[in-house]
Here is the input.
Amino acid sequence: MSKEQTTPESPAPLLEEEQEADLGRLSYRQLVWRKFRKSRLAVIGGVILVTFYTLAIFAEFFAPYDYQHDNVRLQYVPPQGVHFFGEDGFHIVPFLYGLKQTKNPESGELTYVADRSKTYPVHLFHHGDKYRFFGLISTDIHLIGSEGPFYLIGTDRMGRDIISRIIYGGRVSLTVGLVGVFLSIILGSILGTVSGYWGGLTDILMQRFIELLSSFPTIPLWMALAAALPSNWSGIQVYMGITVILSLLSWGGLARQVRGKVLATREQDYVLAARAAGASHWYILMRHLLPTAYSHIIVIATLSIPGMILGETALSFLGLGIRPPLTSWGVLLEEAQRVTVVLNSPWLLIPSLPVVLVVVAYNFVGDALRDAADPYAS
Here is the structure.
């Protein structure tokens, strides 16, 4: 009886030992990836981010129209529906109905309804507005389009396709976060490492300066600095100015956290051995101290990008950020400031959805990276 009882339980310890042996053969990066992909929310967030960045990189191809393509005769067109069934039965190729103007008897404004006497098939790889692919290849092929009006989520006050402007606007809003965090990482990691390594007067002055920066209210300070940008700057110059402003104001938190990591490791044996061997301060900083905070820096950067995106969106929404002819998600939301516009054209609020999705996705990925940064923890 005892033999029958112990036999089923014996494989369990062996499986645990085999799993521990497998983990012992994995590198640190493999361990981090193994733990990261166990989080379903993080994987979903990663897919969302890859999708949005792919759309932004190849915006000319995915957008049905150029973001400046306008038609003043089609202002505030509501979202159009794609149909497979028409008055003559089922269509293998999806289609859209034409548009017909009507007058609202209550408000007196022009509105649009479907003109069922006109149908326009929807085509993949449609020939539309011309563009230069990556500035090199001239083409007019778009992923999807139609010969008639093709406004899946409507148009704005100038008759511009909102979905096209969302895709193009993502190129600005998403890269502001990446470029801004890249600059803040350089400042925060280097200055935080220097502060923690040297200590003394250097540490005191740097920490007081960080406290001074953090004492200012964020939004009013952003508004003041953004308003100080010259009015004759081009859209690209304003874009770079906003990015630099956001990065210069956000490096303090990272610097303090890196400083804490350096304070905990600067007296370790390998650091003291490097000093005794005559290594320079720069070598110790770059070779021994800063790498100990790499995983922490990556996590902080991932969690900081949403703040950058929201900052640019807020500034552009208030009219102090990206300027025309460039567009961003904040610029698109600026048109929905008036209550009357939102009541009559609620689809103008749709650009807020990609902002929410990207911010939530980054938070999911950041939380999973924070857990995966210590793969040996339970």
About this structure: The beta strands are 83-86, 89-103, 110-133, 137-146.
